[in-house]
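Chapter review. Work through the record for V-type proton ATPase subunit H before attempting the end-of-chapter questions.
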Amino acid sequence: MSLDPPTYLASLQTNIRQRPIPWDGAIRAGTLTEEHYAKIRALDKAKKPEQRKEVVEGDIDGYRLLFVGGSGKASVLETAGKHANVVQYILVLLADLLDAVPSLAKALFKGSDPYKHFLPLLHSNTTEDPIPLLTSNALTNLVSLARDESKATDQALPVMLTYLSGLAKSADAGLQDIAVQEYSSLLFGRTSREKFWNQRSETVEPLIKILQTAAGIGNGANSAASLWSGSATVRNNGFEGSLGGGVGLQLLYHVLLVIWQLTFEAEEVGDDLNDEYDIILLYTHLLRLSQKEKTTRLILSTIYNLLEKSPTSLLPTAVLARLPAHLENLTSRHMTDPDLLEDLQSLKDLLDDYTKTKTTFDEYIAEVNSGHLRWSPPHRSQAFWAENARKILDFENGEVPRKLAEIMQKPWENDKQVLAIACNDIGCLVKEVPEKRYQLEKAGLKTRVMELMQSEDENVRWESLRALGGWLKYSFE
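Structure tokens for V-type proton ATPase subunit H:
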């Protein structure tokens, strides 16, 4: 998938191409050999891409030796050493040639390790040094064109991903976009996607933060709380041009593209992606905000990849996040992209099949398992508790009380209603199945309810008092 080069990088490369280099002086200083210069000069004379392609393909092994060395001959990067102007020129030249002569990419892997003299260039003592940026661009072109899966690439990819993750964490949107576009180029196969996922604290997390900013929510543990509670805010015009958090449409699109590529491995990463980043909830919110077909298409396709590969765990979350209602709203909009329309219909079919077979009990269990409670209909329904309380306590050998205990141990600073709802549920369980109070006490729920009577939140205090009142009633009886 070809993407337009980021403006900053393209401008930097143009300046370096046009910068004059005193080649004669470089030869006298030993910065490059006569043989190196002959190769470079031949390319300088060939102005058109097809002429350059002819020159390189006519001496493919010579150009391999120029860039990576081998057979007892040093590469130009080895001889150039710390001569920054020559190194920068060579890095830009290599990136240009890889675009013009794709066969060069595979040729560079014949013989010596092509990364040996490039990877050290990713490290620099100054943030203004352009060499790491030019190196990552050249290496990304090399890896994506060669589709290489050798041991050398296996060892180089984590180093490249770590460098790019630093750009993705930058406050500079231009550097973020360079990182994200290069990520996209690297995620062409399962191996690179696995490595990307294995380094997710470096690679995925900054991208999720960009999406959270785009969605109008804060980063960190409270981000899901603001989505579940409906307190996320963003401009009414959705993603037009720039987002409420200042995320540009182009950067947003490229981030969505990378996460979509990652979901090609949804069977392996889907559950963890949702557990760690609340991806279904976040993407459902992004879907509601998206006004452009190209972002909507990527959001829908990503959600479909996840739900189709992990239906048991993720479909309940999608229903809780009100995805079916958002899909219905989307259907009413006039859209023309055939891939978008196909994914929209596939998602609707998938969710329709699921909801047809699910009961209110299933929905309640899914909500508890999601780790976040909201005032959905079952919580206030006396009929629901009369019918399902015993079943809830017996489910999976007492799994629900344990999950409620986990939920109640969190402070929920941004969403205190979760604690109020949990107290409500415990009170209903005690009322309907008083003889199993010991099961709730064993899970630590009675103690936690008593603690919440001191809560600063009025609703939490009220619900905890009601729950404890039922407990005391049956204790005295």
